[in-house]
Amino acid sequence: MKRLLVAAALLGAVSASAMAIELPAEIAKRGSIKVALVPNYPPMEFRDPATNTLSGFDIDFGEAIGRKLGIKIEWQETSFDQFMPSVSTGRVDAILSGFTDYASRHETATFIDYLRTGPHFFVQQSRASEFKDMAAFCGKKVGASRRTMFPTMINAWSEKSCGSTPVVFVGTDGSADARTQLKQGRIDAAVQGNETLPSIMDLEPGAYTPVGTPIAQQFIGIAIPVKEKALQQAMLEAVDALIADGSYKTLLAKWKLTDNALEKATINAGQ
Q: Is the sign of the CA dihedral 89, 91, 93, 97 positive or negative?
């Protein structure tokens, strides 16, 4: 009797693991999900300098999602400015590219959040002694990409923390430009998502030092057209399945993102 019960339990487990997640008919027929990305944001997505192949956490994660869904991920490179138009017009089925979940984007896309992040101050290591704590940024020039919400968040932190000596914000043309200005001494510190700092410090050993903790909490998500409820549900189930089976944890460790883990996927958690 015991053997029969064990056999039945094993059979049930196999059936559950093999159970297909339902995809929209059009995508299932096509056999692929068209996913937009901009591969210039290590460790999330980038082109390996040695091979020119797509690499990064999002690439590995996206391919793992594809395997869970039994479907091919068709990566489509675009520009950041074309992300939302591509989703709203149906040129792509989803965006998986270190894309931050903001409430202002929810009219166009629903976000399946899979990573926690936050804007983090960092300085040149050669000047680390000047910035023992975050209060040292008050009155200093701090740069961050003007295309993000970081300027608003930095100003909010400054108003709360700096009183009569606020941070002097300097808008940049992206994180690479912020680091260039930092090296040139045009700014005293820079801010970018904490998920990127380990990768940057690996690429430029001894160049930078993070200071303090993230000044706000944000979420990175897979953006899917609002009307595509079936695809949203399929993606949600696939992400949760990867979290449950340990694949997510393994990929986070590979890309030094363990501190950015979520225990469960969320939907539109961004503010």
A: negative
Residue 85, preceding bond cis, omega within 30 degrees? no
- The CATH code of domain 119-210 reads 3.40.190.10
Average pLDDT, the chain: 92
Quick one: which of 251, 265, 260 has its CA closest to 55? Answer: 251
Token pair recorded at residue 206: 């001894």
User: Where does CATH 3.40.190.10 sit in the chain?
Assistant: 22-117+218-267, 119-210
Q: The tokens of 19 are what? A: 């159970």
CATH fold label, 22-117+218-267? D-Maltodextrin-Binding Protein; domain 2 (3.40.190)
First to last CA, the chain: 55
Strand 141-145 relative to strand 189-193: parallel, antiparallel, unpaired? Answer: parallel
- H-state helical runs in 196-245: 197-203, 229-244
Q: Over the stretch 49-76, which tens digit does the pLDDT of each residue have?
A: 999 999 999 999 999 999 999 999 999 9
pLDDT digits (tens, 9 = 90+) for 228-245: 999 999 999 999 999 999
